[in-house]
Amino acid sequence: MNYKQIRSSEVHRETTETTVHVVLDLDGEGEVLAETGLPFLDHMLAQLGRHGLFDLNVNARGDLEVDAHHTVEDVALALGQAIHEALGEHRGIRRMADASVPLDEALAQVFIDLSGRSYAVCELGLRGPTTGSIDSDLWRHFLESLAQTGCFTLHVRVLAGQNDHHRLEAVFKALARALDVASQRDPRRAARVPSTKGTITA
Fold first, then answer.
1. CB atoms inside a 10 Å sphere around CB 45
2. Does residue 47 sit within a domain?
3. What does R_g of the chain's alpha carbons equal in angstroms?
4. Cα dihedral 86, 90, 92, 96 in deg (nearest 10)
5. Can you tell me whether residue 47 is helix, strand or coil?
6. Residue 94: which domain range?
7. What is the spatial distance between Cα 180 and Cα 176, in angstroms, rounded to a whole number?
8. What is the DSSP letter of 166?
9. CA distance linking residue 134 with residue 69, whole number of Å
């Protein structure tokens, strides 16, 4: 693998319930275009791209007449797959990182390991039944689905916050910062895979 290759990917996911198209460049400038039919989801995706310095284009059409579940889930699955594919063999990356982000009264911590192993523990503590017209429990499901196809370990904790919008925005900003650092190339690693096993597999 060329250590200096452009780390980008394009994923198209289509089911009878949704059609999702994701274009991702891990070495971008934070330019985001998100059109999912769910404005608050678009807002969270904008946080992820802008604060992670990822160029991200997400277009989704789903059965919103039913509810938001399928769209939220499939956007997460497609985005996770795009992250994993853009990382390729994970050569030279830092692999593990964490970030803490405050937003007014809210405080979120995110820990990530681009390990090839999918696992998520998410303690969001959302107070209301919905956030931005989306069932609050779907945000936990979004993060779990993202880790599933992204093939990484994810721990999320919201330590403080009265406002659910602030809690979630702090989470996505912290996720962006942690993912940015974990996916960065470490010049000391050269093109080596950051694992004693010599490989990171899905």
1. 24
2. yes
3. 16
4. 100
5. helix
6. 8-183
7. 6
8. H
9. 8
Contacts of 161 (CB under 8 A, 6+ apart): 103, 105, 106, 107, 108, 125, 167, 170
Provide the number of structural domains found in the chain. 1
What percent of the chain clears pLDDT 70, i.e. is strictly above it?
92
Is 192 part of a structural domain of the chain?
no
Band (193; pLDDT cuts 50, 70, 90): low
The two three-digit tokens of residue 93, written as one number: 């990356």
CATH code (residue 127): 3.30.230.40
Site of tokens 């721990």: 155
H-type alpha helices, 34-163: 39-52, 69-87, 137-150
Match 């200096």 to its residue by tokens: 4
Q: Reply yes or no on whether the pLDDT at 195 is more than 80.
A: no
Q: Is residue 28 part of a domain?
A: yes
Residue 190 belongs to some domain of the structure: no
The confidence score (pLDDT) of residue 21 equals 98
Residue that has been written with the tokens 């509810």 in this structure = 67
